[in-house]
Input
Amino acid sequence: MSPLRAIAAIALLAAAAFLGPSIWGKPWSIDHFFARELVSFALQHPMLLSYARVLEPYGLDFHSDELEDLSLEALRSQQTRARRVLAGLREYDGDPLSAEQRSSYRILEWLLEHRIEGEPFAQHEYPVNAFDGWQGFLPDFLLNVHQIHDEGDAQAYLARLAAVEGAVDQLIVRVEEAAEAGIVPPRFVIERSREGMAEFTAKPPEQNVLVTKLEKRSAELEGIDESTAARLVERAVAILSGSLLPAYARLDAALGKLQARAEDRPGASHLPQGHAYYAWALRGHTTTRLTPDQVHALGHAEVARIHAEMRRLFAARGTPVEDPVQGLQALSREPGQRYSDDARGREEILADHRAVIEEASARLPEWFTRVPRAPVAVERVPVFLEGGSAGAYYNPAPLDGSKPAIFYKNLAHLDESPRFGVRTLTFHEAVPGHHLQIALAMESAELPLFRRFVPFTAFSEGWALYAERLAGEVGLLPTPEDRLGQLQAENFRAVRLVVDTGLHAKGWSREHAIETMVSLTGMAPSDVAREVERYVVAPGQACAYKIGQLKILELRDRAREALGSAFDLRAFHALVLDGGARPLELLEEEVDAWIESRAGS
Output
């Protein structure tokens, strides 16, 4: 069954659940329950529907002119809904469920329980920040997610442009109400947010990227004459000048007032119930019960192990070093390691990433039973997001196949991106990392639809970091320099364990966090500052990578030791990937059961 046919079938099941006599009660099948609740959730999140593009192939685009409700009331309503859905889910606890249904039950239960436990922290997250704040996400969504294929899409785009004003006003209320509750972002978080907004709003409305996108697409559309295209663009300019840009000016003014009273203390521990909030956030991102102290100690141990491996590699290439950090810095200055920080260099590094994807894709069947159908492209991070963006990130392809998945590369400081790290970054963001794992889940005909999209940071980021190591094990890191690039990336994620817990559980200052990270990674202080500021606004997220990787490696080693010559790497990868993202706790149980079943056969 094709993905679209599977989706259509699920939609019909959901409709049956809604139209049946148990519309507000217990559907007769847990699969109907999953479908009903997914439909209910999706209908409240029009931007999620645009990401997935589940309905557009059927001409159902009623959501394409709407944005999310960003109010605190909507957030609390979602928490109330989580309690209702959990109660409904538990009505199936005594029912005879298949193994796959029981797995889906437990994954959804885990998500809902964690969401409910977070009710006291509804205001703790900073909805405006330079890393993933809504003030940057809204224009990024309109640029890179909302597709324009005809005049109707263009009109929906204009409606969403007009809706940005209301969304930004909701953000203003959110940050002001949070401040009244004692939750004020650190001063530097506010400063970076305002800098990004200034970049976004600097040009006249007719030159703003939101207008020039529409202008370009309108000129390319068949069936739209020049006068109609001109009217669409004129309407976009009017919206920006009349509502959108003034809304951003109001947000900037509100942040300016907040900045005057903000402090520079960065950690969650300084917030009301801060230690409890960080423990909740850490569990959500790692899907384990590791304490901040345990994560901190694990980070130091991993850094020591990785540095020892680096020393051995430097010695093997004839450039022995005592301090591997200084060795990496020297390596990055060697002839041929730097891209020119200009248009030519930017094109060259993007071309190199594409070449690595092609090379790795050709070999995927050696280690995986399935490979993605969706292609993955490489593009530059939008310029107005570069200042607060991560070095790279991945956006999956929509289910209708209307565009490829995209690996975005931040090209703001290209002279700080040495060539020896290109292969490992590609493996992480594309194949066999994020693209392989996420595309396989989204393309699965066996998983309930909610499990194709469910977010578990430790699983997805842990897999991507595992993929970096795997690439080296199977020969995709052919030179000592490439292998040092992989160790540099792994060391970076190990240092994150130290720095994230230091910031949020041990009271570190921003400056101390930066100094520690520079000393342990050798990264440029400007890059480290951007990283540390990211950790401040997303407590616990940076810990998920290494925790996830270590758990997958632990489970692989456990299976290999238990099964001996019967161990099959492709089968192990299929077990891990075919179930989609799930909590590490549940993954471990599944692997243990798989080992037991194979050992007894």
About this structure: The chain is about 65% helix and 0% strand. The CA atoms of residues 377 and 406 lie 5 Å apart. Residues 127-264 form one domain. Residues 1-23 have pLDDT under 50 and may be disordered.
